[in-house]
From TrEMBL:
Transmembrane regions listed in the UniProt entry: 12-35, 104-127
Biological process terms in GO annotation: cellular response to phosphate starvation
Classification via PANTHER family: HISTIDINE KINASE (PTHR45453:SF2), PHOSPHATE REGULON SENSOR PROTEIN PHOR (PTHR45453)
Pfam family, one: HATPase_c
InterPro entries xrefs: BphY/WalK/GraS-like, HATPase_C_sf, HATPase_dom, His_kinase_dom, HisK_dim/P_dom, HisK_dim/P_sf, Sig_transdc_His_kin-like_C
Protein's name according to its UniProt entry: histidine kinase
Highest taxon of the lineage: Bacteria
Catalysed transformations (reactions): ATP + protein L-histidine = ADP + protein N-phospho-L-histidine
Keywords noted in UniProt: Cell membrane, Kinase, Membrane, Phosphoprotein, Transferase, Transmembrane, Transmembrane helix, Two-component regulatory system
CDD domains tied to this protein: HATPase (cd00075), HisKA (cd00082)
Membrane topology, from the record: Multi-pass membrane protein
UniProt keyword Disulfide bond present: no
C-alpha cells in the first residue's frame, strides 16, 4: 500500500506493531505473576489451615486427606455458608485473598498506566512530527501565494502526503511559469507601445509641419500639392509602421496559427515578388528566379510569401541601379533552402548581429528607405513556423539571406 511508503507513517506503524507485541508480553507477564501470586496465596492458606488443625490435635493423616480432597459434601457447604464463606463474601474479609486482591489491582493499574504512557508518547511524537511537516508546508504554500518560489515543498519521501506535495509543487511551477509569462507579456507590450510611440513621433511631427505650411499658403497651388504628397507619404509610412508592429506583436505573442501545408516553391516565390517586379524595373534592377519547378515546401503560403518579399525588398533597398537580386532554392532529403542574394552595399561586420532587431538602422544605410521592421518581421514569420533564417554578407560586395524549412512534416 502506498500509505506505508511514507517514512513517518512507516515508523509509526512499526511503533504500533511493537506496542501490540509489548501488550502481549505485558499480558503474559501479568498472567504469570497472578498465577504465582495465586499459588502463594493457596499455599499460605493451606499452611494456616494445617497449623490450626495440628494445634487442635488432629492427626496428620486426617489433615492430609482433608487438604488433598476434591470432594464437596452437603455438610461442608452448610458449614461454609454458616461461616459466611460464599460467592457473595467480600474479598477484603477473606484472609490471604485480601492481600492477593490488593496486589492484583496494584499490578493491573500500574501496567495499564505504563502502557497508556507509552502509547501516548508514541502518538504525540508522531503528531508533533506530522504537525511540523504541515506547518512547513503551510509556510511554503503561503510563500507561493505571495509569488515567492524560493523554497519548495519536501519531496524526499513517498506516501500520499508527499504525492499531494508533489502535485502542489507542480501547480506552483505552472503558476510561476504563468506569472513569468504574464510579466514578459507586460514588458513586451510596454516595449512595443514605447517603440510605436517613438517611431510615430517623427511622421506626426512632419504631418503637423506640412499641415501648418499648407495653412500658411492656401493660395499657393504648388506648395499645397507638394506638401499634400508629403502628407500622403508620411501617412503611408505610419500605416506601414503600425501594420508591421501589429503583425510582429501577434507573431511574438503566439496569436497567429500558421496554415502549414505543402506549397510549390515556385508559386511561393512568385507571390513574394509579385508586387516588387514593377519597382525593380523602375529602379533598373534585375530580379532573377532560379530553381526546380516541381519542388515543394511545408509552410504557410501567405505569411512565408510576405517574409521572403521583405527579404527581396531589403535587397532592393540596398542595391544600386543596375544591380542584381537572385532568388534561388535548393533541397536535400529533409530540408529546403531558399536563398536571396544581392550584389548591393552589403552589411558591415559590426551590424550583422543586429539587423534582425526592431528599428535597427546601420550608420551606413541611414539614407535608404525602410523603417527597420522588414527583417524582424521576416524572422518572426520564419521561426514561428519552425524554420531557420541566417545571413552572410561582405561590405560593398553583397548579401545572401538563407531561409530553411523541413520538406516533411
Amino acid at each position: 500500500m502506498s500509505i506505508f511508503r511514507d517514512r513517518q507513517v512507516k515508523f509509526f506503524s512499526i511503533f504500533i506493531v511493537l506496542y501490540i507485541a509489548l501488550i502481549f508480553c505485558v499480558g503474559a507477564w501479568f498472567c504469570q505473576a497472578q498465577i504465582t501470586a495465586s499459588k502463594s496465596m493457596y499455599l499460605e492458606h493451606n499452611r494456616a489451615i494445617i497449623s490450626a488443625l495440628l494445634e487442635q490435635g488432629i492427626s496428620k493423616e486426617i489433615i492430609a486427606n482433608a487438604i488433598f480432597s476434591t470432594d464437596t459434601s452437603v455438610a461442608g457447604i452448610e458449614l461454609s455458608n454458616y461461616l459466611g464463606i460464599t460467592s457473595y463474601t467480600i474479598g477484603s474479609t477473606l484472609p490471604h485473598f485480601s492481600q492477593f486482591q490488593n496486589q492484583f489491582w496494584l499490578m493491573f493499574f500500574g501496567s495499564c498506566t505504563c502502557m497508556i504512557i507509552v502509547l501516548l508518547i508514541g502518538i504525540i511524537s508522531f503528531l508533533r512530527i506530522r504537525n511540523k511537516l504541515y506547518q512547513r508546508a503551510e509556510k511554503i504554500i503561503d510563500n507561493y501565494i505571495n509569488n515567492d518560489y524560493s523554497c519548495h515543498l519536501p519531496q524526499d519521501s513517498e506516501g500520499e502526503i508527499f504525492h499531494l506535495f508533489a502535485s502542489v509543487e507542480q501547480l506552483a511551477t505552472m503558476l510561476q511559469a504563468k506569472n513569468e509569462t504574464e510579466h514578459k507579456t507586460k514588458e513586451f507590450l510596454k516595449s512595443t507601445i514605447s517603440d510605436i510611440s517613438h517611431q510615430l513621433k517623427t511622421p506626426l511631427a512632419a504631418l503637423m509641419m506640412y499641415q501648418e505650411i499648407i495653412e500658411s499658403e492656401p493660395d499657393n497651388t504648388n506648395t499645397v500639392k507638394e506638401f499634400s504628397q508629403k502628407i500622403g507619404i508620411a501617412l503611408k509610412r505610419m500605416e506601414q509602421l503600425i501594420l508591421s508592429m501589429l503583425k510582429i506583436t501577434r507573431l511574438d505573442t503566439g496569436n497567429i496559427l500558421f496554415d502549414k501545408r505543402a506549397c510549390s516553391v515556385q508559386e511561393l516565390i512568385k507571390n513574394a515578388i509579385s508586387e516588387l517586379t514593377t519597382r525593380a524595373t523602375q529602379e533598373k534592377k534585375q530580379l532573377i528566379v532560379q530553381g526546380t519547378p516541381n519542388q515543394t515546401v511545408i509552410c504557410d503560403m501567405d505569411w512565408t510569401s510576405e517574409a521572403i518579399g521583405n527579404l527581396v525588398k531589403n535587397a532592393l533597398d540596398h542595391t544600386e541601379a543596375g544591380g542584381v537580386i537572385e532568388i534561388t532554392w535548393e533541397s536535400t532529403p529533409t530540408m529546403l533552402r531558399i536563398l536571396v542574394y544581392d550584389n548591393g552595399s552589403g552589411i558591415a561586420p559590426e551590424d550583422i548581429h543586429h539587423i534582425f532587431k526592431r528599428f535597427y538602422r546601420s550608420k551606413y544605410s541611414l539614407n535608404t528607405p525602410g523603417i527597420g521592421l522588414g527583417l524582424p518581421l521576416a524572422k518572426s514569420i520564419i521561426e514561428g513556423q519552425g524554420g531557420l533564417i541566417s545571413v552572410q554578407s561582405v561590405l560593398h560586395e553583397g548579401t545572401t539571406f538563407s531561409v530553411s524549412f523541413l520538406t516533411k512534416s
